Amino acid sequence: MKLIIAVVQDKDSNRLSEALVKANYRATKLASTGGFLKAGNTTFLIGTEDEHVEEVMSIIKDNCKSRDQLVAPISPMGGNADSYVPYPVEVQVGGATVFVLPVEQFEQY
Ligand code: 2BA
Ligand code: 2BA
């Protein structure tokens, strides 16, 4: 068994959870925050058998889009003036950042 951890954009999270339910996969959604943008994103935990990992990965790929997002200028107030960025910078946020971990034990009580 594997645990798939997928960090996706909030905009894609409903579509992804619907697609997972439709394909009969179980998942847990956690509200999370990106360390860099400090904006909300969604982390999916999906526990599934090894032979289903590929299908889950393609469901994630098909339902999550990468987008450009503007990073607000960093305020010099109370911070280091050297790192002050006076203009918005655009970064590309990926459709999904996915980790696949082995599961040692799985129980449901
Ligand atoms: P939920 O996804 O809200 O599911 C609540 C209950 O609904 C489940 O109880 C199960 O009885 C049923 N259910 C869920 N998905 C289904 C499906 N595709 N078809 C038919 N019935 C379905 P539990 O199995 O005790 O799960 C309780 C909660 O534990 C789940 O809440 C989910 O948040 C988490 N969970 C369960 N299995 C998981 C897995 N393989 N990976 C990640 N999270 C899991
Ligand atoms: P954030 O940390 O808010 O990052 C959003 C986007 O900003 C990233 O998109 C990347 O394009 C850019 N970025 C992040 N850190 C950067 C840095 N130190 N310098 C320059 N640009 C940077 P993605 O790479 O697609 O990541 C989207 C979200 O996935 C991240 O949100 C984070 O929540 C999660 N993530 C990405 N890589 C991760 C990792 N190795 N471990 C844990 N979470 C990760």
From TrEMBL:
Write down the InterPro entries for this protein, in alphabetical order. Answer: CdAMP_rec, N-reg_PII-like_a/b, N-reg_PII/ATP_PRibTrfase_C
Q: Where are the transmembrane segments?
A: none
Q: Which SUPFAM superfamilies match?
A: GlnB-like
- Taxonomic superkingdom: Bacteria
Query: Which PANTHER family does its entry note?
Result: CYCLIC DI-AMP RECEPTOR A
Protein name per its UniProtKB record: Nitrogen regulatory protein P-II
The uppermost taxa in this organism's lineage are: Bacteria, Bacillati, Bacillota, Bacilli, Bacillales
